[in-house]
Design goal:
By secondary structure, the chain is of the alpha/beta class. The protein folds into two domains: 17-108, Alpha-Beta Plaits (2-Layer Sandwich); 112-411, Rossmann fold (3-Layer(aba) Sandwich), CATH 3.40.50. It is 24% helix and 19% strand. It contains ten helices and 16 strands. It has helices at residues 30-41, 58-61, 84-95, 141-145, 196-205, 238-250, 272-283, 367-384, 390-399, 408-411, and strands at residues 17-25, 50-52, 66-69, 74-77, 101-112, 159-164, 179-183, 223-228, 235-237, 255-258, 260-261, 287-291, 316-321, 344-347, 351-354, 361-364. Strands 1, 2, 3, 4, 5, 9 and 11 form a seven-stranded mixed beta sheet that branches. Strands 7-8-6-10-12-13-14 form a seven-stranded parallel beta sheet, sandwiched between helices. Strands 15-16 form a two-stranded antiparallel ribbon. Helix 2 (58-61) links the parallel strand 2 and strand 3 (66-69). It is globular, with a radius of gyration of 21 Å. The termini are far apart.
Amino acid sequence: MPKAPTAPTAPAPPTGRTGRLLVLLSDRSARLSVAALRRAAGPYIATTLDVRSGVLTPEQTEGADAVYFDKLGVALVNVDPGDARRSARIRTAAVENEARILAVEPERYVHAYAAVRKPAVRRKGAVPAKAPSDPESKFTWGLQATGVPASAFTGKGVKVAVLDTGFDLKHPDFPSRSVTAVSFVKGYKAQDGHGHGTHCIGTACGPQSPYHPPRYGVACGSAILAGKVLDDQGGGADGGILAGINWAITQGARIVSMSLGAEVTVDDPYSEIFEAVGQRALAAGTLIVAAAGNESDRRTGWYAPVGHPANCPSILAVGALDSKMQLGYFSNRGLNPKGGQVDLAGPGVNVLSAFPMPERSARLSGTSMATPHVAGLAALWAEAHPNATATELWTFLTQHARRLPLLATDIGAGLVMAP
């Protein structure tokens, strides 16, 4: 008998470097810093460099030699991979200690973090684990474990930005919610054609009373900022992430959730540029929460270090736990002596949340699923302490975490908890 036809699979997101450069500039004066970059690049950056606040879409930046993200003090410079002279001039300016050019790095490709695919959905997601021991008739096990049902807070008035594959803008569980959606991926609208972003937004900000129980969303009263920084195959690049963070800060987001990243090795240093972005975001009142990554296989004794950009000290890195308070087998470990610790852990195995129609909901596993739990709970803490700085929000999360008999290199301060 002839073999049955197999369903086509989406191409894997690219990895490695894009060929473009990220340039960290002094935040003392945007005008002088941009001028320094132009001097360093000589004739290669003309008047096409864009300096704007708020939404800066790929279509708007088409043809620009460089794009400057004003809230972050970072420029994305378009460099032809074969144009070694242009790249060398900018790098030389940094090496020679040009006062306003602080660091230069290659832009990386990034991708959505998820453990394993769920065959019934045929999208990038995870195979569900065994059903949790606690019933989920009213609340998912993750909400129960983190104390959400008993909390008096819903994240009301708090803006949460989720930078991912977008959002199913017609999902029936979100008819009356405040949702602002923008795409930073060329050729794509903000609508989620992948599923990962909708699942993460559902966990962080899902409704108090979904049409089909149980409740799966943490900050059910929050305002949702959905930034599409990954395409419908789950791939993207650093520049899209930076555009999303810049937009989120401009929009007044208290929390940015990023279930994405790139694999690193134990010897890789963290990105100076993303570390500066994390610091500048904290100073602006925005806490960035990111997934630690899923490259480990604890079943075989293989542990991978926390990925980029979660390995930056000023970005809160999240590991994944199951309903028995054990590590997800895929969850990365804080191994890198040059930076990259796990700061907190969240529910990340067999997590039920929203999914694009017609599936409506799905169970996925990954540090991607743990991260929006932490982001949503940060929104509850932000409502409870409206005048708290972003650094103080980080402290509330870690000080009130539930301690567990597991290594701090795996779970940091412990399981994140609601106020």
